[in-house]
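Saturday, quiet lab. Running sequence design on the structure tokens for the scaffold JK sent over.
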């Protein structure tokens, strides 16, 4: 009943404003409480913000990771007087979104909208207790649909009939899901991301990196990921795979480099899930990148797409680090439970190629998945110790709603009461698994790198340490110059020794 009252207040607000335009301002909130992420930048919000700005909207983004910032949010809303306040959320952040929406609604009449993967896959969240302060949800990609909603709200018109919008019917109390708008197939049409809405220069300065995202969608059936389920909401997975033209991607990088102070040794992070998957796109991008930018970069890859030619091209263009997630070193967990479908042979071959081209490797594992045992975790440790990985990351599995493994957890009663559990996402286990204890999972998580190094043996550990030091010292222009001088000196000494040896004969 209370929820219906809140909806009626929002609708009354629109009716009162009918006939006059509201403020052309929008407030967007990116909650990141108790998260593994910890980076105050969101590519989706940057794209959404840019679209709104291109139509004359004043946009403010708030990255929030601490409840102590609630008064700051409230004051910024009162100062900006936005007609629309938007939130993005994954499942672990939804409770905080509910709290913030209620706080804002209490003091400022506006329309509150929640989007993100959680609402896309589970719009029924709007029916939950404490969701009454959220006027509607927005499923799927939202650049154009969110803009349409803002225009409707600003004109005092009905906004609930827009595609992608879902809401609780004010009289029937039932969930209404409008059809999804077709995906934007021409990513090149989107404006450059509004990175200035975040503390982007601070991110560059503090993390020595600049973040970019070019492509969308994923065809792989990994059971712990929501990407394929989201794609299927639109029809087929194939329709969800889209690439920004290589030319536009390069121009986006150049735009950012001109806009900010980015030192030449700053690592450019390409965070696309499938950056190396499409050969034609990748090689066109790398050709342009090497010719026009030529800076060190970090990218993702999949072991099953790795090739000698691919890694050679990546290295030549400036790649320093490749992230190839193995997820689990145990074949059963990796391929039967997680559906990675990557054989042990293919996996080892990809890391051998990376080592061949002196690329740093980053390969996070996930432990604590359904059917995990002490033996499968130990197998993962042994596998990682054999792969000679530079950065040995580790995460604890979280059962995101809408993923196949979430269904497995529900069917096997592995899930806790989430209303009583607030674990640090990917850093603490929330499942009640009969095959491995939470304390055991936590021990492996907290001691992962030490346990991996221990299995490598003294010689391998020493070699790995030397390799890491070498890559660190030479991964910059000065280091590259020093390496050239040293190698040249060694060559000249060898040449002199050979000449002397020949003369003595």
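Result came back. Writing it out in full:
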């Amino acid at each position: 009943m209370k929820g219906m009252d809140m909806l009626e207040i929002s609708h009354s607000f629109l009716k009162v404003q009918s006939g006059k335009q509201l403020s052309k301002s929008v407030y967007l909130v990116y909650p990141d409480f108790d998260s593994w992420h910890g980076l105050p930048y969101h590519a989706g919000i940057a794209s959404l913000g840019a679209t709104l700005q291109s139509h004359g909207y004043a946009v403010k983004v708030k990255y929030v990771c601490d409840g102590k910032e609630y008064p700051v949010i409230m004051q910024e809303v009162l100062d900006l007087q936005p007609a629309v306040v938007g939130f993005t959320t994954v499942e672990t952040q939804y409770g905080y979104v509910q709290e913030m929406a209620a706080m804002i609604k209490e003091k400022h009449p506006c329309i509150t909208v929640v989007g993100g993967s959680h609402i896309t896959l589970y719009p029924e969240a709007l029916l939950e207790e404490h969701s009454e302060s959220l006027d509607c949800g927005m499923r799927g990609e939202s650049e154009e649909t969110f803009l349409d909603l803002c225009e409707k709200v600003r004109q005092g018109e009905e906004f609930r009939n827009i595609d992608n919008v879902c809401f609780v019917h004010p009289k029937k109390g039932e969930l209404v899901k409008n059809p999804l708008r077709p995906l934007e197939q021409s990513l090149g049409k989107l404006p450059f991301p509004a990175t200035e809405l975040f503390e982007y220069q601070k991110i560059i300065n503090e993390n020595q990196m600049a973040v970019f995202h070019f492509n969308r969608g994923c065809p792989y059936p990994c059971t712990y990921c929501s990407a394929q389920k989201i794609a299927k909401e639109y029809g087929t997975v194939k329709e969800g795979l889209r690439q920004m033209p290589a030319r536009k991607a390069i121009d986006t990088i150049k735009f950012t480099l001109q806009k900010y102070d980015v030192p030449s040794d700053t690592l450019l992070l390409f965070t696309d899930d499938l950056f190396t998957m499409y050969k034609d796109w990748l090689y066109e991008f790398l050709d342009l990148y090497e010719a026009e930018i030529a800076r060190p970069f970090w990218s993702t890859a999949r072991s099953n797409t790795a090739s000698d030619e691919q890694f050679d091209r990546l290295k030549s263009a400036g790649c320093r680090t490749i992230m190839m997630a193995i997820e689990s070193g145990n074949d059963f967990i990796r391929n039967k439970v997680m559906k990675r479908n990557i054989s042990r042979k293919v996996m080892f071959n990809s890391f051998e190629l990376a080592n061949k081209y002196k690329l740093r490797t980053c390969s996070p594992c996930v432990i604590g998945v359904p059917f995990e045992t002490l033996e499968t975790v130990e197998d993962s440790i042994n596998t990682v110790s054999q792969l000679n990985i530079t950065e040995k990351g580790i995460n604890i599995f979280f059962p995101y709603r809408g993923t196949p493994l979430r269904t497995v957890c529900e069917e096997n009663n592995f899930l806790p009461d989430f209303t009583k559990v607030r674990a640090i996402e990917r850093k603490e286990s929330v499942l009640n698994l009969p095959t491995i204890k939470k304390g055991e999972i936590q021990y492996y998580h907290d001691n992962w790198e030490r346990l991996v190094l221990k299995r490598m043996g003294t010689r391998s550990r020493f070699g790995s340490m030397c390799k890491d030091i070498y890559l660190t010292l030479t991964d910059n222009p000065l280091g590259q110059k020093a390496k050239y001088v040293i190698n040249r000196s060694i060559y000249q000494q060898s040449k002199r020794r050979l000449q002397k040896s020949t003369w003595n004969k």
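Notes for JK: Confidence is low (pLDDT under 50) at residues 497-505. The first helix runs from residue 2 to 17. Ask whether to fix the surface positions before the next round.
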